Protein backbone atom coordinates (compact mmCIF):
# COMPACT_ATOMS: atom_id res chain seq x y z
CA UNK A 1 0.00 0.00 0.00
CA UNK A 2 1.34 3.41 -0.91
CA UNK A 3 0.96 6.61 1.06
CA UNK A 4 -1.96 7.73 -1.07
CA UNK A 5 -3.88 4.54 -0.15
CA UNK A 6 -3.20 5.09 3.55
CA UNK A 7 -4.21 8.75 3.29
CA UNK A 8 -7.39 7.71 1.51
CA UNK A 9 -8.39 5.32 4.30
CA UNK A 10 -7.70 8.02 6.90
CA UNK A 11 -9.83 10.55 5.02
CA UNK A 12 -12.65 8.03 4.57
CA UNK A 13 -12.63 7.39 8.31
CA UNK A 14 -12.92 11.11 9.04
CA UNK A 15 -15.61 11.45 6.37
CA UNK A 16 -17.76 8.90 8.21
CA UNK A 17 -17.60 11.16 11.26
CA UNK A 18 -18.65 14.34 9.50
CA UNK A 19 -22.09 15.52 10.55
CA UNK A 20 -22.01 13.54 13.79
CA UNK A 21 -22.14 15.31 17.13
CA UNK A 22 -18.72 15.70 18.81
CA UNK A 23 -18.36 13.48 21.87
CA UNK A 24 -17.58 15.01 25.26
CA UNK A 25 -14.19 13.48 26.10
CA UNK A 26 -12.19 13.63 29.31
CA UNK A 27 -8.45 13.80 28.57
CA UNK A 28 -6.42 12.66 31.58
CA UNK A 29 -3.17 14.58 32.13
CA UNK A 30 -2.46 16.02 28.64
CA UNK A 31 0.87 17.43 29.82
CA UNK A 32 3.11 16.93 26.83
CA UNK A 33 2.76 18.36 23.35
CA UNK A 34 1.66 15.20 21.47
CA UNK A 35 -1.14 14.45 23.94
CA UNK A 36 -2.39 18.02 24.12
CA UNK A 37 -2.04 18.64 20.39
CA UNK A 38 -4.06 15.51 19.62
CA UNK A 39 -6.88 16.61 21.91
CA UNK A 40 -6.88 20.12 20.44
CA UNK A 41 -6.79 18.88 16.85
CA UNK A 42 -9.51 16.27 17.43
CA UNK A 43 -11.61 19.04 18.93
CA UNK A 44 -10.93 21.29 15.94
CA UNK A 45 -12.02 18.51 13.57
CA UNK A 46 -15.31 18.14 15.46
CA UNK A 47 -14.62 14.61 16.71
CA UNK A 48 -14.53 15.36 20.43
CA UNK A 49 -15.29 18.15 22.87
CA UNK A 50 -12.23 17.92 25.15
CA UNK A 51 -12.29 18.32 28.92
CA UNK A 52 -8.63 18.64 29.96
CA UNK A 53 -7.81 17.27 33.42
CA UNK A 54 -4.40 17.99 34.91
CA UNK A 55 -2.24 20.75 36.41
CA UNK A 56 -3.69 23.84 34.73
CA UNK A 57 -0.45 25.82 34.77
CA UNK A 58 1.45 22.96 33.17
CA UNK A 59 -1.20 22.45 30.49
CA UNK A 60 -1.09 26.17 29.72
CA UNK A 61 2.71 26.08 29.47
CA UNK A 62 2.63 23.12 27.06
CA UNK A 63 0.01 24.91 24.96
CA UNK A 64 2.07 28.09 24.83
CA UNK A 65 5.25 26.23 23.89
CA UNK A 66 3.45 24.36 21.11
CA UNK A 67 1.40 27.28 19.84
CA UNK A 68 -1.86 25.52 20.72
CA UNK A 69 -5.11 27.44 21.24
CA UNK A 70 -7.13 26.34 24.28
CA UNK A 71 -9.85 29.00 23.96
CA UNK A 72 -13.21 27.66 25.05
CA UNK A 73 -11.86 24.36 26.37
CA UNK A 74 -12.74 23.32 29.88
CA UNK A 75 -9.72 22.69 32.10
CA UNK A 76 -10.10 20.86 35.41
CA UNK A 77 -7.14 21.75 37.61
CA UNK A 78 -5.64 18.92 39.69
CA UNK A 79 -2.12 18.75 41.18
CA UNK A 80 -0.59 15.67 39.50
CA UNK A 81 -1.10 12.69 37.20
CA UNK A 82 -2.53 10.37 39.85
CA UNK A 83 -5.18 12.93 40.73
CA UNK A 84 -5.83 13.51 37.03
CA UNK A 85 -6.60 9.82 36.44
CA UNK A 86 -8.94 9.64 39.43
CA UNK A 87 -10.74 12.88 38.55
CA UNK A 88 -11.09 11.90 34.91
CA UNK A 89 -12.81 8.66 35.89
CA UNK A 90 -15.03 10.55 38.34
CA UNK A 91 -16.18 12.91 35.58
CA UNK A 92 -17.20 9.89 33.50
CA UNK A 93 -19.10 8.41 36.43
CA UNK A 94 -20.86 11.75 36.91
CA UNK A 95 -22.09 11.55 33.31
CA UNK A 96 -20.14 14.57 32.06
CA UNK A 97 -18.51 12.73 29.15
CA UNK A 98 -18.86 9.58 27.02
CA UNK A 99 -15.20 9.03 26.16
CA UNK A 100 -12.02 8.82 28.22
CA UNK A 101 -8.62 9.54 26.70
CA UNK A 102 -5.19 8.83 28.16
CA UNK A 103 -2.81 11.78 28.06
CA UNK A 104 0.87 11.72 29.01
CA UNK A 105 0.64 9.68 32.20
CA UNK A 106 1.80 6.07 32.42
CA UNK A 107 -0.67 3.39 31.30
CA UNK A 108 -0.47 1.51 34.63
CA UNK A 109 -1.39 4.64 36.57
CA UNK A 110 -4.22 5.44 34.17
CA UNK A 111 -5.64 1.91 34.12
CA UNK A 112 -5.43 1.61 37.90
CA UNK A 113 -8.08 4.34 38.16
CA UNK A 114 -10.14 2.82 35.33
CA UNK A 115 -10.11 -0.68 36.86
CA UNK A 116 -10.66 0.32 40.48
CA UNK A 117 -13.34 -1.92 41.99
CA UNK A 118 -14.64 0.90 44.18
CA UNK A 119 -14.60 3.93 41.87
CA UNK A 120 -13.66 2.62 38.44
CA UNK A 121 -15.44 2.04 35.15
CA UNK A 122 -15.99 -1.72 35.29
CA UNK A 123 -19.20 -3.29 33.99
CA UNK A 124 -20.48 -6.85 33.95
CA UNK A 125 -18.31 -7.49 30.91
CA UNK A 126 -14.55 -8.09 31.00
CA UNK A 127 -12.56 -5.04 29.93
CA UNK A 128 -10.25 -5.70 26.98
CA UNK A 129 -7.95 -3.91 24.56
CA UNK A 130 -8.27 -3.82 20.79
CA UNK A 131 -5.59 -2.70 18.38
CA UNK A 132 -6.91 -1.64 14.98
CA UNK A 133 -4.14 -1.93 12.45
CA UNK A 134 -3.96 -1.00 8.77
CA UNK A 135 -1.52 -3.41 7.10
CA UNK A 136 0.10 -2.52 3.76
CA UNK A 137 0.04 -6.18 2.70
CA UNK A 138 -3.55 -6.95 3.76
CA UNK A 139 -6.70 -5.99 1.89
CA UNK A 140 -8.56 -4.46 4.85
CA UNK A 141 -8.11 -3.31 8.41
CA UNK A 142 -7.51 -5.81 11.20
CA UNK A 143 -8.43 -5.81 14.88
CA UNK A 144 -5.94 -7.58 17.18
CA UNK A 145 -7.15 -8.43 20.69
CA UNK A 146 -6.10 -8.50 23.54
CA UNK A 147 -2.67 -6.89 23.53
CA UNK A 148 -2.67 -4.72 26.66
CA UNK A 149 -5.11 -5.66 29.44
CA UNK A 150 -5.68 -9.38 30.08
CA UNK A 151 -2.39 -11.15 30.76
CA UNK A 152 -3.59 -14.78 30.74
CA UNK A 153 -7.30 -14.71 29.89
CA UNK A 154 -9.54 -17.61 30.83
CA UNK A 155 -12.04 -19.06 28.39
CA UNK A 156 -14.75 -16.92 29.97
CA UNK A 157 -12.54 -13.83 29.60
CA UNK A 158 -12.03 -14.67 25.93
CA UNK A 159 -15.79 -14.69 25.37
CA UNK A 160 -15.92 -11.04 26.42
CA UNK A 161 -12.71 -10.24 24.54
CA UNK A 162 -14.32 -11.61 21.36
CA UNK A 163 -17.65 -9.87 21.95
CA UNK A 164 -16.03 -6.50 22.65
CA UNK A 165 -14.12 -6.68 19.37
CA UNK A 166 -17.15 -7.90 17.43
CA UNK A 167 -19.31 -5.07 18.73
CA UNK A 168 -16.67 -2.54 17.68
CA UNK A 169 -16.34 -4.08 14.21
CA UNK A 170 -20.10 -3.85 13.76
CA UNK A 171 -20.03 -0.21 14.93
CA UNK A 172 -17.44 0.42 12.20
CA UNK A 173 -19.80 -0.91 9.54
CA UNK A 174 -18.77 -4.57 9.27
CA UNK A 175 -22.09 -6.43 9.22
CA UNK A 176 -20.81 -9.92 10.08
CA UNK A 177 -17.21 -9.79 11.28
CA UNK A 178 -14.96 -12.78 10.68
CA UNK A 179 -12.97 -13.80 13.76
CA UNK A 180 -9.81 -15.92 13.65
CA UNK A 181 -8.88 -17.50 16.99
CA UNK A 182 -5.11 -17.83 16.79
CA UNK A 183 -2.94 -20.66 18.04
CA UNK A 184 0.44 -22.14 17.21
CA UNK A 185 -1.27 -24.87 15.17
CA UNK A 186 -4.65 -25.40 13.53
CA UNK A 187 -5.48 -28.67 15.28
CA UNK A 188 -6.92 -29.12 18.76
CA UNK A 189 -4.61 -30.59 21.40
CA UNK A 190 -5.00 -30.85 25.16
CA UNK A 191 -1.27 -30.13 25.40
CA UNK A 192 -1.92 -26.66 23.97
CA UNK A 193 -4.74 -25.05 25.98
CA UNK A 194 -5.11 -22.15 23.53
CA UNK A 195 -6.29 -24.60 20.87
CA UNK A 196 -8.91 -26.06 23.22
CA UNK A 197 -10.13 -22.55 24.06
CA UNK A 198 -10.34 -21.73 20.35
CA UNK A 199 -12.49 -24.76 19.63
CA UNK A 200 -14.73 -23.98 22.62
CA UNK A 201 -15.18 -20.37 21.49
CA UNK A 202 -16.30 -21.53 18.06
CA UNK A 203 -18.86 -23.88 19.58
CA UNK A 204 -20.04 -21.13 21.94
CA UNK A 205 -20.61 -18.89 18.93
CA UNK A 206 -22.72 -21.63 17.34
CA UNK A 207 -24.83 -21.76 20.51
CA UNK A 208 -25.32 -17.98 20.70
CA UNK A 209 -22.95 -17.31 23.59
CA UNK A 210 -20.95 -15.07 21.26
CA UNK A 211 -23.11 -13.05 18.87
CA UNK A 212 -22.89 -11.22 15.58
CA UNK A 213 -19.88 -12.88 13.93
CA UNK A 214 -18.48 -16.02 12.37
CA UNK A 215 -15.61 -17.59 14.32
CA UNK A 216 -13.01 -20.17 13.33
CA UNK A 217 -10.08 -21.63 15.20
CA UNK A 218 -7.63 -22.67 16.18
CA UNK A 219 -5.87 -21.13 13.20
CA UNK A 220 -2.14 -20.56 12.94
CA UNK A 221 -1.23 -17.05 11.80
CA UNK A 222 -0.40 -18.13 8.24
CA UNK A 223 -3.63 -19.99 7.59
CA UNK A 224 -5.62 -17.26 9.30
CA UNK A 225 -4.42 -14.56 6.89
CA UNK A 226 -3.77 -16.68 3.80
CA UNK A 227 -6.51 -18.78 2.20
CA UNK A 228 -3.87 -20.49 0.07
CA UNK A 229 -1.91 -21.53 3.17
CA UNK A 230 -5.12 -22.85 4.74
CA UNK A 231 -6.08 -24.84 1.64
CA UNK A 232 -2.60 -26.37 1.46
CA UNK A 233 -3.26 -27.78 4.93
CA UNK A 234 -6.73 -28.99 4.01
CA UNK A 235 -8.55 -26.28 5.93
CA UNK A 236 -11.86 -25.12 4.48
CA UNK A 237 -12.79 -21.97 6.31
CA UNK A 238 -14.94 -18.89 5.67
CA UNK A 239 -12.53 -16.96 7.89
CA UNK A 240 -9.15 -17.98 6.43
CA UNK A 241 -7.72 -15.28 4.22
CA UNK A 242 -10.38 -12.76 5.20
CA UNK A 243 -10.52 -12.20 8.99
CA UNK A 244 -11.56 -8.87 10.47
CA UNK A 245 -10.47 -9.81 13.99
CA UNK A 246 -7.50 -11.79 15.32
CA UNK A 247 -7.94 -13.13 18.86
CA UNK A 248 -4.61 -14.03 20.46
CA UNK A 249 -4.03 -16.60 23.23
CA UNK A 250 -2.56 -14.16 25.77
CA UNK A 251 -1.25 -10.63 26.25
CA UNK A 252 2.38 -11.45 25.46
CA UNK A 253 1.43 -12.92 22.11
CA UNK A 254 -0.85 -10.00 21.30
CA UNK A 255 1.62 -7.34 22.35
CA UNK A 256 4.45 -8.86 20.33
CA UNK A 257 2.19 -9.37 17.30
CA UNK A 258 0.83 -5.80 17.40
CA UNK A 259 4.32 -4.30 17.66
CA UNK A 260 5.70 -6.54 14.93
CA UNK A 261 2.91 -5.45 12.62
CA UNK A 262 3.53 -1.83 13.50
CA UNK A 263 7.32 -1.67 13.32
CA UNK A 264 8.18 -4.21 10.62
CA UNK A 265 5.30 -3.78 8.19
CA UNK A 266 4.78 -0.04 8.49
CA UNK A 267 1.24 -0.56 9.75
CA UNK A 268 -0.62 2.29 11.41
CA UNK A 269 -2.53 1.39 14.54
CA UNK A 270 -5.27 2.62 16.83
CA UNK A 271 -5.68 1.36 20.41
CA UNK A 272 -8.95 1.30 22.35
CA UNK A 273 -10.13 -0.26 25.60
CA UNK A 274 -13.64 -1.71 25.45
CA UNK A 275 -16.05 -3.28 27.91
CA UNK A 276 -15.93 -0.37 30.36
CA UNK A 277 -18.73 2.17 30.92
CA UNK A 278 -17.31 4.18 28.03
CA UNK A 279 -14.75 3.49 25.29
CA UNK A 280 -11.24 4.43 26.38
CA UNK A 281 -8.54 5.84 24.12
CA UNK A 282 -5.33 4.16 25.28
CA UNK A 283 -2.77 6.07 23.26
CA UNK A 284 0.95 5.36 23.34
CA UNK A 285 3.74 7.89 23.71
CA UNK A 286 5.07 6.81 20.31
CA UNK A 287 1.73 7.31 18.53
CA UNK A 288 1.65 10.02 15.88
CA UNK A 289 -0.88 12.86 16.00
CA UNK A 290 -2.56 11.30 12.98
CA UNK A 291 -2.88 7.96 14.77
CA UNK A 292 -4.36 9.69 17.83
CA UNK A 293 -6.87 11.53 15.63
CA UNK A 294 -7.85 8.23 14.01
CA UNK A 295 -8.34 6.78 17.52
CA UNK A 296 -10.74 9.62 18.31
CA UNK A 297 -12.65 9.00 15.09
CA UNK A 298 -13.04 5.27 15.79
CA UNK A 299 -14.12 5.95 19.37
CA UNK A 300 -16.60 8.57 18.18
CA UNK A 301 -18.21 6.04 15.83
CA UNK A 302 -18.36 3.49 18.67
CA UNK A 303 -20.18 5.95 20.94
CA UNK A 304 -22.71 6.86 18.27
CA UNK A 305 -23.32 3.16 17.59
CA UNK A 306 -23.88 2.62 21.31
CA UNK A 307 -26.38 5.48 21.37
CA UNK A 308 -28.32 3.97 18.47
CA UNK A 309 -28.41 0.58 20.18
CA UNK A 310 -29.66 2.01 23.50
Supply the key terms:
310 residues; single chain; globular; 44% helix; 11-stranded mixed β-sheet; 11 helices; Isopropylmalate Dehydrogenase; alpha/beta
Structural class: alpha/beta
Mean pLDDT: 92
Which word captures the global form? globular
Helix content: 40-55%
In short:
The protein has 310 residues and is α/β, with parallel strands linked by helices. The protein has helices spanning 3-17, 33-44, 56-66, 81-93, 107-114, 155-171, 193-206, 221-225, 227-232, 251-265, 289-309; strands at 23-28, 48-54, 74-77, 99-102, 128-134, 142-145, 178-182, 214-219, 245-247, 268-274, 280-281.
Question: In words, what does this structure look like?
Answer:
The chain has 310 residues and is α/β, with parallel strands linked by helices. The protein has a domain at 123-275: Isopropylmalate Dehydrogenase, CATH 3.40.718.10. Helix content is 44%, strand content 18%. It contains eleven helices and eleven strands. Helix 1 packs parallel to helix 11 (289-309), helix 2 crosses helix 11 and helix 4 (81-93) runs parallel beside helix 5.
Secondary-structure map:
Blueprint: H1 3-17, E1 23-28, H2 33-44, E2 48-54, H3 56-66, E3 74-77, H4 81-93, E4 99-102, H5 107-114, E5 128-134, E6 142-145, H6 155-171, E7 178-182, H7 193-206, E8 214-219, H8 221-225, H9 227-232, E9 245-247, H10 251-265, E10 268-274, E11 280-281, H11 289-309
Parallel strand pairs: 1-2, 1-4, 2-3, 4-11, 6-9, 7-8, 7-9
Antiparallel strand pairs: 5-6, 5-10, 10-11
Helix pairs in contact: 1-11, 2-11, 4-5
Amino acid sequence: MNRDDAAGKYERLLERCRGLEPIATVVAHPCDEPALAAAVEAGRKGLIAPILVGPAARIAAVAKAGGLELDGMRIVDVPHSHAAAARAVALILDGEAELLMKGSLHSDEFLSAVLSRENGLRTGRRISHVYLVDLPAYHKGLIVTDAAINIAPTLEDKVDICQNAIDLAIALGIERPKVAILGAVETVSSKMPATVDAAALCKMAERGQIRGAVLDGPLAFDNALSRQAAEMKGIRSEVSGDPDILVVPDLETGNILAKLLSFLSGAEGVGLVLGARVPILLTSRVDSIRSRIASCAVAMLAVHARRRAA
